[in-house]
Each structure stands twice: as C-alpha cells, then as structure tokens.
Design goal:
The chain contains 6 helices and 4 strands; from the N terminus they run αααβαββαβα. It is an alpha+beta fold. The two termini are 19 Å apart. The relative contact order is 0.15. Keywords: DNA-binding, Transcription, Transcription regulation.
C-alpha cells in the first residue's frame, strides 16, 4: 500500500475532478512542471493507484436499458469455478465477493425483464450456485467517486 504525499494527493484530486485532463493542463492547474507531473503520474500508475482506464460506457444505447444486482449464494468449495462461469456471461458488468450471508453481488445489464430472467437462470444453472436474489436498479444516486476522500 503506497503512501501519498501532498503533491500526489493534489494530482489525484485534480484527476478526480477532470479525468481527461492532459499532463500540461494538470501541470498548469497545480503549478508544477510538466516533467514533475509526468514522473508523478508514472510512479502513481506503477504503484497501482489507478483503476482500469476503460471508459464508462452507457449500456442503454447498446440495447441494455435495465440494470440489476443479483445476490448469489454459492457453495464455498465451488466459488472459484462459479465466478469463472459468471464472468463468461456478457451481461455481467461487475461482481464483488462479500462477507456475510451473500457470497457474490453481481451487477448485470439487460434488455428487459425477460432478459433479466434468462440471465438469472444462467447464473442459477452454474454448479455450486444455490440460489439468487435479484433487485432491479432504480437509478444511480451516488456515482463512484473519490473526490471527497481526497479533499479530506
């Protein structure tokens, strides 16, 4: 786990506010040299500070206007294989392993309720999956963010 100094935190806060900012724009905003910003970004990237650079793409125009969360209960000895099979379902866009009563929280996108039923059935058909509980997402109320943590 890397420790970030004031310059690193300022750079991360600037990137959080404007993820598409160029090195030159960041240097101007933070009143640092371009070389300093470039070196710091390289070091931050090497330390694992950045998550995936995959752009956030709205699935609705792709024909997937609905999003749901599926809580999956899995036999522990088959968890790894079940995760591999779940990852092979194209509509699965994210999954987290959880502690507690639920083993996995799977985020899916779907075309309609029938499509969601099909996806849930695919997950239920996986060896080791005991049951699922599905909740339709009504809307994202707080998007992924780290700005407030960086400002703290």
């Amino acid at each position: 786990m890397a420790a970030y100094d004031v310059v690193d935190r300022s750079l991360l806060a600037a990137l959080s506010a404007d993820p598409r900012a160029t090195v030159v724009a960041l240097a101007e905003r933070l009143r640092l040299s371009r070389n300093t910003v470039q070196a710091r970004l390289a070091r931050l990237e090497a330390s694992g500070a950045f998550l995936s650079y995959e752009r956030s793409i709205d699935p609705a125009p792709l024909g997937y206007p609905l999003e749901a969360f599926i809580s999956v209960h899995v036999q522990q000895k088959l968890l790894g294989a079940a995760v591999d099979r779940i990852a092979a379902i194209p509509e699965v866009i994210q999954a987290h392993g959880l502690s507690g009563a639920v083993d996995l929280l799977v985020r899916v996108v779907c075309r309609d309720a029938h499509d969601l039923f099909r996806i849930d059935g695919e997950i239920l058909a996986i060896d080791g999956v005991e049951r699922t509980e599905t909740s339709l997402a009504m809307g994202e109320l707080i998007p992924y963010r780290l700005g407030p943590l960086l400002e703290r």
